[in-house]
Amino acid sequence: MWYNFNIAKQTYRRIRDPIHGLIDFSEREQQLIDTQVFQRLRRIRQLAMAFLIYPSALHTRFDHSVGVMHIAGRICTRLQELNPDRISDEDIANIRFAALLHDVGHGPFSHLSENLLEKFAPAQTHMGITGGKIHEKITIDIIRNDSQIKGILDDKERKFLIDMIQGKPTQDWRRDIVSSELDADKMDYLLRDSYFAGVKYGEYDLEKLIESCLIVDRPKTQPTRPETQLALDSEGLYALEQFMLARYHMKQQVYWHEVSLISDEMITRGVTLAIEDGNKRIAELYKYPRRSKKDTDQDYEEKRKDFVQNYLDYHDEKVIDLLRNCKQRKQIKFSIDFTIESSSIQLLDSGSNMKIWKSVTALGKW
Asked: For the chain, where are the E strands, in sequence order?
């Protein structure tokens, strides 16, 4: 449910969230949430196929992104209390925008799409981002070109967001809030994933962690490194330890659960076989465009725009329907015979009796 209220002549909207309680939005944040690219996140589950083991784990990238924005805003407010002359309201607004939009480039099945995009990515993407970060490149393409986002954020604001994603010109405390080992993203997904999976492994003291945040200057003897960074004071040590243990336990018990990993691998294999078999629609979804020698800057820009436009039409269920309707030369059926040995999972393809081995660590990057 949405609520309207006024603070200092500015209208805010408020919603209830099971993790953070009441979350407030500015008018422009609400406009970003109402864009088509953001609403699409309602149809992309946060934990992909984990609902096969944890039936209530049906939460989405939509509510996660809202939670990340909320935590990022709380961290900024705390830092502004400690550094009133160093942090402006504009800084806070831009960081909240970046946190809100940080996942708009995610594809169907969330992190599973990252593996597929990386697998079928060209050797270079022409924009300084490696194949392993194709999802970030897609996020940049969306922020740069989406007409609705361009109508809400000006050029300076969108450049700030893109620079934060790319880590340019420097990685400082602002980017640490959105992307680091101690960022708002991890702070939200641990609590949210734990809650919806119905486990306690991801719980930690969020309040103490936020209260302990501060900005520290890096030594000037390291000119190639950022000048500032997000840090914690000593009183937050035990909250940090709890946070790190929560990450470890969630990986072991939820993210790396053998059934979840197997279902992910089956989807990956299904997509791979479909592309190898010449399925054009699936190939167009996961093959980021390659720049040929004949392409001008404008030609390649159009290729990327066409790819992103098609990419944004897909969500979890649509890809499942595509795979279900695929007419492969060999019917894809798996009899699951899994064991955990040397951090690996064994899948036995009953059609060809071919054993496929996949490293757990390669699938478990969260």
From this structure: 3-7, 10-17, 21-26, 213-217, 228-232, 334-335, 340-341, 344-349, 355-359
The torsion angles phi and psi of 110, rounded to 5 degrees, stand at: 50, -115
Of the ranges 22-26, 43-47, 275-279, which one carries the lowest mean pLDDT score?
275-279
| CA separation for the pair 54, 66 (Å, rounded) | 22
Grouping H, G, I as helix, E, B as strand and the rest as coil, residue 213 is strand
Q: What are phi and psi of 196, to 5 degrees?
A: -80, -25
What domains are there in the chain, each with its CATH number? 16-253 (1.10.3210.10), 259-363 (no CATH)
As given in the structure block, the two tokens for residue 279 are 């399925």
- Extract the tokens encoding 282: 């699936």
3-state secondary structure of 54: coil
- Sorted by sequence, the CB contacts under 8 Å of residue 23 that are 6+ apart come out as 14, 15, 16, 17, 66, 67, 69, 70
Cβ atoms < 10 Å from Cβ of 216: 11
The pLDDT assigned to 126 comes to 45
Contact at 8 Å (CB) between 266 and 334?
yes
DSSP class of residue 253 equals I
The closest of 296, 312, 310, 308 to 144, measured between CA atoms, is 308
Does 125 have pLDDT greater than 60?
A: no
AA letter at 203:
E
> How many helices (H) does the chain have, and how many strands (E)?
17, 9
Please give the pLDDT value at position 222: 59
- Does the structure show a pLDDT above 70 at 11? no
Separation of alpha carbons 24 and 2, rounded Å: 10
